TrEMBL record, chain A:
Signal peptide as annotated in the record: none
Keyword terms, alphabetized: Endoplasmic reticulum, ER-Golgi transport, Golgi apparatus, Transport
Compartments, record wording: Endoplasmic reticulum; Golgi apparatus, cis-Golgi network
Main location group: endoplasmic reticulum
Pfam family membership, one: TRAPP
Any one GO BP annotation for this protein: Golgi vesicle transport
Family: Belongs to the TRAPP small subunits family. BET3 subfamily.
Record has Methyltransferase as a keyword: no
Record-given protein name: Trafficking protein particle complex subunit
Subunit structure: Homodimer.
Task of the protein: May play a role in vesicular transport from endoplasmic reticulum to Golgi.
Amino acid sequence: MSKKYDKLGNDVFNKVEKINSELFTLTYGALVTQLIKDYEDIEQVNIKLEQMGYNIGIRLIEEFLAKSGIGRCSDFIETAEVIAKVGFKMFLGINAHVGDWDADRKEFHLTIEDNPLIDFVELPEQYKHKLYYSNILCGVIRGALEMVQMKVKCTFVKCTLSDDTTSEIKVVLEEVLSDMIPVGYD
Amino acid sequence: SISASCFEFFYIEMIDCIMKSSSDKQHAHKKLDKLGFKVGHRLVERLSLDTALFPELLDSVKFICKVFWAMVFKKTIDGLKTNHKGVFVLTDSKFQWLQHLSFDSSASNKDCSEYVQFTAGLIKGAMSNFGFKCIVTFDIQQVSTCVFTIKIES
């Protein structure tokens, strides 16, 4: 399954219009700096970044589905593969890996390689393990999945900027939302 | 590289975030201008690594019209005019960041200058890296034509 989505991710990424990632990296960095200045409280910055990501996710899913041609996933395991191999590849041009499934298959870790957001970035000591610099990605995943009836919670568990060896997002499936609200239900 | 739409999704959200976190429009524009300045300054630093120092002001402006614009917008500036006294007028007749805006024709507020202000900052930042201090103003014409005016301050 993973191989199939590897190929699809590559194919879609080759098709989409691309720009130099430095513009994105630098603009994102400038925004995070501005947010830190505006909010002062780092936790608020994390929340704001996640919210921005959510707003992006709910719009981005449409383009994702249209360009990748992916239909409904059979289970959450497949969903995870699609996010890692097609989603991350298509938009950021990078590879992500799924691992660390829990026994119920409702929770996994997404390891991100070569995250373009953190190029040229170094966190000052006082922000390490406090600021989730790329927290916008968590929001994007949450927003996008909510549009396909999955309520998830995403958190950064490891970040290379905070001296961890990898960058990992934990994704927990909380609820599968039903397509339609039954008649007479409120 | 990354997908162009990825940046644009982010860009829209960034504008929204700055507008909402500012006390008024003027304040927001100032912030966007500053953000653009920082990014423009750094982008040029990386873009011109292999370029020799420009002897003339015009060469720096041309660099912005061609190399810089191509990196950010995947096209070059459509028109460049100058009075040879430190004023340059750059016309982009298909400004990328206004391409996907839709508006309600009955709405009273058709101002979309917040989507352009960042770019004025980009130009200013780029010019400052070349050693020129300038004022950049812009004018949105028709649907997606943007005219930027660079005035060099001596």
